[in-house]
Amino acid sequence: MKRSTLIVAAAMALAFAAPAIAQRSHAGGGPPAGRGPGSDSGMSSSHEAGAPTSHADMSHTSPSEVLSHNTAIARKIKTLTGQEAQAACDGFKNLGQCVAAAHVAKNLDIPGGFDALKAKMTGTGAVSLGKAIEALAPNANSKSETKKANKQASDDMKESNS
Predict the structure, then answer these.
(1) ∠ CA 74-85-143 to the nearest 5 degrees?
(2) How far apart are CA 142 and CA 123, in angstroms?
(3) What whole-number distance in Å separates Cα of residue 103 and Cα of residue 100?
(4) Which of 8, 59, 73, 77 could form a disulfide with 160 if both were Cys (CB 3.0 to 4.6 A apart)?
């Protein structure tokens, strides 16, 4: 387990480093070709170029887009919430937030379950996971429960991408 985690971490580091290195490897001392004063940050996005979204760029992809391609994480969400993953994650900003909320609901046996937690996090006056825990499970340590759920979500996401 530790070895595979290390391999995944190294692969992700290389995936993130390669574009940055490529952008900086141009001759001369000025900005890269096509980038002069007054241009944007100098970094291009795969979305701008029309390239398909990679696993390394999932942070900017909606949960429904990721779930349509990643059946492993969709099954995990269904197991945790009892709902189809698309419906469960509708309204969340990203997939990690949805998976973390699903873990908190299960870990703490939140009154009203995942739906109550989701309503606090995505409804009118949406709050963070920690604030939602404070409201729905006031006896729980929201900081440690948030950290635990984020770790569980991260582990689930890594497992589903392997």
Answers:
(1) 90
(2) 20
(3) 5
(4) 73
* CA-closest candidate to residue 16, choices 41, 43, 50: 43
* Number of other residues whose CB lies within 10 A of the CB of residue 56: 15
Structure tokens, 59: 């942070």
pLDDT tens profile 90-107: 999 899 999 999 999 999
pTM for this entry: 0.61
Considering Cα of 9, then 16, then 88, then 50, what sign does the dihedral take? negative
Counting every residue, how long is the chain?
A: 162
Helix residue spans in 25-93 (DSSP H)? 63-69, 71-81, 85-89
Instruction: Give residue 143's identity as a one-letter amino acid code.
Output: K
